[in-house]
Amino acid sequence: MNKIIGQQEEAENCLQEKKQQQDSLPKYATHVLLSAEIRKKVEAVDRLCKPIMTIAWD
Fold it and tell me: Where are the beta strands (DSSP E) in 1-58?
């Protein structure tokens, strides 16, 4: 469980950091926060959570 929380916090911190960087740039500058990076973070958290969520409770 701690591993999942750690992964989620890491993804959230990364998102906030990239958003701050993006907000400080002019609108026409190259984007810092890319959807591919967000998708990658979501998939990493999902890989940790999916086995737990799919356990068959007897």
Answer: none
Residue 46 half-sphere exposure toward CB, CA atoms < 13 A: 6
pTM: 0.69
- CB-CB contact of 8 with 53 (8 Å): no
Domain boundaries, the chain: 2-53
How far is it, in rounded angstroms, from Cα 42 to Cα 56?
24
Q: What is the pLDDT of residues 5-23, one digit of tens each?
A: 888 899 899 999 999 999 9
Q: Report the number of secondary-structure helices (H) and strands (E) in the chain.
A: 2, 0
Question: How far is residue 40's CA from residue 46's CA, in Å, rounded to a whole number?
Answer: 10
